[in-house]
Each structure stands twice: as C-alpha cells, then as structure tokens.
Design a protein that fits this description.
By secondary structure, this protein is an alpha/beta fold. It is built from six helices and five strands. It has a five-stranded parallel beta sheet with strand order 3-2-1-4-5, sandwiched between helices.
Length: 152
C-alpha cells in the first residue's frame, strides 16, 4: 500500500507467451471452414522443448505467464487438454484466445488490441512468439522479444 502511494509500479512482471510455433508445433491450414478439423489436430502437436523450458525458467523466477494466442475460442478446451498432457497447465496465470468475432482479422491486429488490456494489468517484460509481425508489434510497444523460430 505504501509503495502505491509513492507511485511505484506495483503491477506484476509478466511474460507474454504464444502457443503455436512457440510451445508446440504449428498446425498449418486453419480456415473458418475447417476449424473443427484444425482444433482436433492441435491435440497431436509435438512439444517444442526449448520454448517450454524457457517458459518454466521465467515462471521459476517469479514472472507471471500470460498466454496470448490467435487460437480461437473453439480451441480453448483442446488447449487446456494439451497443456495438461505437457504438464504445464499449472503454470498459466492468464490465457487469452481470439473471440469468434475476430475470425478473419490478422492475428497481429487481435494481439495488438489485447496488449492494451494486458499492459494495464501487467508490467510486460518479454514476449515469446514465432510471427515476425507479432514480434515487430511487441517491439513497437517497447517489449523485449524472444523469437521462437530460433528453436524449430
């Protein structure tokens, strides 16, 4: 309470973590028409060990893990199933899936919009992602980036 009176930033330090291409192999070919097929395919994705271990390192060092994915709401159940299978479901502090109303909107636009909300709650230190456009957007926001393409 005293720190807040002095104007010290008391927001928890956080890491933004993408899922597909960052923690798990990516399932290519999503369209609105084949969404149900794609959602089922996400259960078969192999883990990307470097991304998962890096995420665990951040968690062990006191960072909050905020998952910001362009996966749609229809994939939320399978995301949790796959996280549980990988043994990382307990590490999630917050998870944001793209609402159905954002289908067809470029992932970078959705993530940019959500970052405005997330940054009100968290002091975002790093963002882990595999998309060049998303990485560029995070840099524009002053967030240090970790390029997941380096561990494919």
């Amino acid at each position: 309470m005293e720190a807040q009176k002095k104007g010290i930033n008391m927001k928890p330090k956080a890491i933004i973590v993408d899922i597909d291409g960052t923690l798990f192999e990516e399932v290519p070919g999503w369209t609105m028409e084949n969404d149900l097929w794609w959602v089922e395919e996400t259960l078969k994705m192999e883990e990307l060990t470097v991304g998962i271990e890096l995420m665990k390192f951040f968690k062990e060092n006191g960072f909050k893990l905020v998952f910001l994915t362009a996966r749609g709401q229809t994939c939320k159940k399978n995301t949790w199933i796959r996280f549980k299978k990988a043994g990382i479901d307990h590490l999630v502090d917050s998870m944001w899936h793209r609402p159905v109303s954002w289908n067809g909107v470029p992932p970078v636009d959705y993530k940019r919009f959500m970052m405005k909300r997330i940054m009100k709650k968290y002091d975002v230190m790093f963002a882990m992602d595999d998309s060049n456009s998303n990485l560029g957007m995070f840099k524009e926001l002053g967030i240090k980036t970790i390029d997941a393409k380096k561990w494919w």
